[in-house]
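User: Quick sanity check before I run a bigger batch. Here is a single chain. Can you write out its predicted 3D structure?
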Amino acid sequence: MQQPDRLIAAIEAIYASAVDPSRWPSTLEIVTKCFDDVGAILIYGRDDGSFGVIESPSLREVCAEYAQSWSDRDIRAIRARERGYFFKRDIITDRDLLTPEEMETDPFYNDLLRRHGLKYFAAATVSPDPHIEVALSVQRAIGRPEYSEDELQILERLAPHVETSLRLSIHLMDAQSVNAGMGIAMARIGIGVFALDAMGRVVSSNAAAQALLGDGLNIVNDRLVISNPAASGEAVTAIRNALDGNRIILSQETKPILVHRQNANRPLALYVLLTGPH
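Assistant: Done. Predicted structure follows.
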């Protein structure tokens, strides 16, 4: 699989995990393939000051030991916390946190990681809330070089998708609707969903979506119509890219399309996302 295809597969899996968080371990394995690495984790801060992880299956053994004996001695996570990286939307790796001498002497490196054949890491902070510490971290085997700038850019591209997915998961869980279906779940938190078929026709919509119609957004002849010309052009292009299978183009941007309305001060934020196999 070529690198663009790996990236697309990872992004699709990331959004699938928003509705079904049990997918995260397999999603992390897919993320790992973007770097040809050993595995990946989501690491998060606990209330007691230690750290927890959700890991790809390939890291199950080391993460079990981590949870038992090392979650409060993770020098990398501790340094990242001390320097505020979790909330800076940064991409970090070993050289941002430790000197080569520290890496040679710290027990986290020369004991835990070494015994499990690991050394370097690269992490993207993906905290979905100002009070929650979360990072996506890929793990590299001993013997491989440190992460290059090109590799860090790949991680930087994945990070906003992970953050968006986690934020949506939190909303869904708060609404106690993880298993209620995409349309119903999003309606409960005020998010409108329009499902389009392969011809671009609206084939279903939830109650929240229907409530948005009439001011800047309408359905005409089974098509979504946006009254604002600029937003309409962006939406038409995004939908066309999705229908044409241009997933690379669609995955490069996570910014919403803003639809300004006459009867509301705040615009609608429109996202075009792929669902299901393509």
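The chain has two domains: 3-172, 177-270.

User: Great, the batch can go ahead then.
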